[in-house]
């Protein structure tokens, strides 16, 4: 959405001077920026909903129009990316209703929409509903695509993280280990970014179970895979290093934690910049640990 900043806006010098004088004598630039951005957000929401209505009028029967359902799902994703989760959920649920009626329950498109709804419920902190929809997506994918398929593996991992959010760690670990097994079978045990992601997720679930030594084994493997010739993904490497630093810290290995965080910091400063929230988080972790020495 718009990030209008009135103080940086283009204007003739005399006009800008008058505008800024009025702003500072009135509500102030920050409050006015907030008000303008809120108005633009409201306008954009209304515009998107108007487009949906217009698109629906073009349908012969919108209740079974698969193309319209795909459009609604894309709109839901747009709202989701912008943080408008209630709006996203409304469009995703409409899409699911149409897809179920037109395609039936066993459809890859229906599975994807169930997954989308699950992620939206998760962002709304409604984890039980999130698990139900993510599990439904998994069940459909297993039925249609089989066990050894990348989307099935992704669903196992998604369900695992939702279960982790509910504190159901035994079930979460079982699911994420299945995701790892599927991906190893899928890629014939060769290094792959998806295997790296699974190793990180296993590490996170083990860490949540306070099994930090076991977590470190998987996370260190993840670093090796991320650095391998077949993968070479510094973002995944940084993610694993971040988690390794956390587990070292929980084990009381302060210097090991600092050393690992420093490696992570180098990567994140390079790819995200010094002021990115993930970079700042790592820097704060290092400073906090250094003070505790």
UniProtKB/TrEMBL annotation:
<keyword id="KW-0802">TPR repeat</keyword>
<keyword id="KW-0677">Repeat</keyword>
<feature type="repeat" description="TPR">
    <location>
        <begin position="238"/>
        <end position="271"/>
    </location>
</feature>
<dbReference type="InterPro" id="IPR019734">
    <property type="entry name" value="TPR_rpt"/>
</dbReference>
<feature type="repeat" description="TPR">
    <location>
        <begin position="196"/>
        <end position="229"/>
    </location>
</feature>
<feature type="repeat" description="TPR">
    <location>
        <begin position="69"/>
        <end position="102"/>
    </location>
</feature>
<dbReference type="Pfam" id="PF13374">
    <property type="entry name" value="TPR_10"/>
</dbReference>
<dbReference type="Pfam" id="PF13424">
    <property type="entry name" value="TPR_12"/>
</dbReference>
<dbReference type="InterPro" id="IPR011990">
    <property type="entry name" value="TPR-like_helical_dom_sf"/>
</dbReference>
<protein>
    <recommendedName>
        <fullName>Kinesin light chain</fullName>
    </recommendedName>
</protein>
């Amino acid at each position: 959405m718009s990030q209008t900043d009135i103080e940086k806006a283009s204007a003739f010098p005399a006009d800008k001077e008058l505008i800024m004088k009025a702003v500072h004598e009135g509500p102030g630039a920050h409050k006015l920026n907030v008000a303008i951005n809120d108005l633009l957000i409201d306008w954009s929401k209304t515009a998107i909903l108007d487009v949906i209505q217009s698109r629906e009028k073009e349908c012969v029967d919108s209740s079974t129009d698969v193309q319209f359902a795909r459009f609604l799902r894309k709109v839901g994703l747009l709202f989701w990316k912008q943080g408008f989760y209630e709006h996203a959920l409304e469009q995703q649920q409409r899409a699911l209703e149409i897809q179920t009626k037109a395609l039936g329950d066993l459809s890859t498109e229906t599975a994807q929409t169930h997954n989308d709804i699950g992620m939206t419920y998760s962002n709304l902190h409604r984890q039980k509903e999130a698990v139900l929809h993510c599990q439904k997506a998994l069940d459909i994918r297993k039925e249609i695509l089989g066990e050894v398929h990348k989307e099935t593996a992704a669903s196992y991992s998604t369900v695992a993280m939702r279960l982790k959010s509910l504190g159901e760690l035994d079930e979460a670990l079982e699911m994420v280990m299945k995701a790892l097994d599927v991906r190893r079978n899928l890629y014939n045990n060769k290094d792959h970014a998806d295997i790296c992601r699974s190793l990180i997720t296993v590490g996170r679930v083990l860490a949540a179970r306070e099994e930090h030594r076991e977590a470190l084994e998987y996370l260190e493997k993840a670093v090796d895979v991320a650095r391998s010739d077949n993968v070479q993904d510094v973002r995944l490497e940084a993610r694993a290093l971040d988690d390794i630093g956390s587990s070292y810290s929980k084990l009381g290995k302060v210097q090991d934690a600092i050393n690992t965080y420093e490696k992570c910091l180098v990567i994140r400063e390079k790819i995200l910049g010094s002021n990115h929230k993930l970079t700042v988080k790592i820097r704060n972790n290092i400073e906090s640990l250094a003070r505790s020495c």
